[in-house]
Design brief:
single chain; 424 residues; alpha+beta; Nucleoside Triphosphate Pyrophosphohydrolase; 3 domains; eight-stranded mixed β-sheet; two-stranded antiparallel ribbon; 10 strands; 15% strand; elongated; disordered C terminus; binds iron/sulfur cluster
């Protein structure tokens, strides 16, 4: 029977009072198209408790639409959640941190292989802190928004150097760490520590702004209203499942343009659905203006190695390795810009050998057009471990921290067989 109800098998947290006793919660279920709805109904064990329960104003749990919707949401999640790798490590704050940071602005399907590689190489905060930042960037290579990898690395170092045993287990402590924002801290507290702490990402904002038909009074007020809705609908227990369930609902059912309200466990309390126009919520966000930039880069090969340099300027691809690259100036031919970039890094003039296919790539607010050219050098450039130019073996490129567009250029010029997989 317990398995039929899905209790204590794979889903809701085992409850301290389970199996049911005279003091525990009574459960009934209603079959749905997918999954079941649980209706928790408090039963009292004495006349005084019954009197106390009756004296409270408002409907009982079984009659309260919000409580019914909460139970339906948890049951829906238990029946429909995707078997994502980070969901086997819910209680590990470090793994929650990694998955939540990777999932920012990135699709789940893209994140999965990166997450698996990351936790295999850096299974703990200590392992991450002990590694070079360049190794973290290399594992992140192709996932984009590389500042996230740098911030994770700096958080790991900050905790280890402070002698802490791990991530703080309280909201204030998490927020005090560099680069951990309200969402990430809330997600760690709710998922890893099962605390009643709102974890409001874009998916959750969409779901709850529709449930409450929140008109957009500005991002700060919308966020406050969504957090209030999160707390209002939250169950008393099973907080980690609730937090994940809302995120999952936004990712799979309450989509931005075509919410599937027929399948939605929150349909009974959703004001936007009742109003007939769910996609009107939340109000569209004004997109930041994208900036088109045109860059050129120089590929130089010597034997089985490629000339690379480390990007030291803040901004695009900071800290990563790349071929000498620069922005193409007005009235400048792209190959001249590539030659200029090569001269700046090596102090040498190269001979243009060939133009390589142009690569286009969007990153943050930039739309980058990258014109690559292959050059030969009449003399080897001065390289040293500390200098701007270094030779990297082609066989090592796969594990080098290269930006995605440069990886594509190298894959095109050298071939995947030359050791440049993970092309995005
Ligand atoms: S009922 Fe529809 S609009 Fe409302 S939360 Fe569910 S899927 Fe979204």
């Amino acid at each position: 029977m317990l398995r039929l109800l899905g209790i204590g098998v794979r889903g809701l947290e085992p409850r301290a009072s389970w199996p049911p006793s005279r003091h525990s919660t009574k459960l009934s279920y209603t079959p749905l198209a997918r999954g079941i709805i649980l209706h928790p109904m408090a039963i009292s064990t004495s006349a005084s408790k019954a009197k106390h329960a009756q004296s409270r104003s408002g409907p009982t749990k079984s009659e309260c639409p919000t409580r019914t919707a909460t139970a339906a949401l948890l049951a829906w999640f238990r029946a429909n959640r995707r078997p994502l790798p980070w969901r086997t490590a819910w209680r590990d704050p470090y793994r929650v941190l990694i998955s939540e940071v990777m999932l920012q602005q990135t699709q789940v399907a893209t994140v999965v292989p990166y997450y698996l590689r990351w936790v295999e190489r850096f299974p703990t905060l200590e392992a991450l802190a002990a590694a070079d930042e360049s190794e973290a960037l290399a594992l992140w290579s192709g996932l984009g928004y590389y500042g996230r990898a740098r911030r994770l690395h700096s958080v790991a170092r900050a905790i280890v150097s402070a002698g802490l045993p791990g991530l703080p287990a309280d909201l204030a402590g998490l927020r005090a760490l560099p680069s951990i924002g309200a969402y990430t801290a809330g997600a760690i507290m709710a998922i890893a520590h099962n605390q009643r702490t709102p974890a409001v990402d874009g998916n959750v904002t969409r779901v709850l702004s529709r449930v409450d038909a929140l008109s957009d009074a500005g991002p700060a007020e919308l966020n406050r209203s969504v957090e209030a809705a999160w707390l209002r609908i939250a169950p008393r227990r099973a907080m980690r499942h609730y937090a994940e369930a809302l995120m999952e609902l936004g990712a799979t059912v309450c989509s931005p343009t075509a919410p599937d309200c027929v399948l939605c466990p929150l349909a009974g309390i959703c004001l936007a659905k009742a109003g007939g126009d769910p996609t009107a919520y939340p109000a569209p966000v004004k997109r930041s203006v994208t900036t088109a930039v045109v860059h050129a880069c120089a590929l130089v090969r010597q034997d089985d190695a490629v000339l690379l340099t480390r990007q030291t300027q803040p901004g695009l691809w900071h800290g990563m390795l790349e071929m000498p690259r620069t922005e193409v100036q007005d009235d400048e031919a792209p190959q001249d810009a590539a030659a200029r970039a090569l001269l700046a890094v090596t102090g040498l003039h190269g001979h243009l050998a060939r133009a390589l296919p142009t690569v286009r790539h969007s990153v943050t607010r930039f739309r980058v057009t990258l014109h690559p050219f292959e050059f030969s050098l009449t003399e080897p450039p001065p390289v040293s471990a500390s200098g701007p130019a270094l030779w990297v073996q082609v066989s090592s490129l796969a594990s080098a921290p290269l930006p995605a567009p440069q990886r594509r250029v190298l894959a095109s010029a050298l071939g995947v067989a030359a050791g440049v997989p993970h092309v995005c």
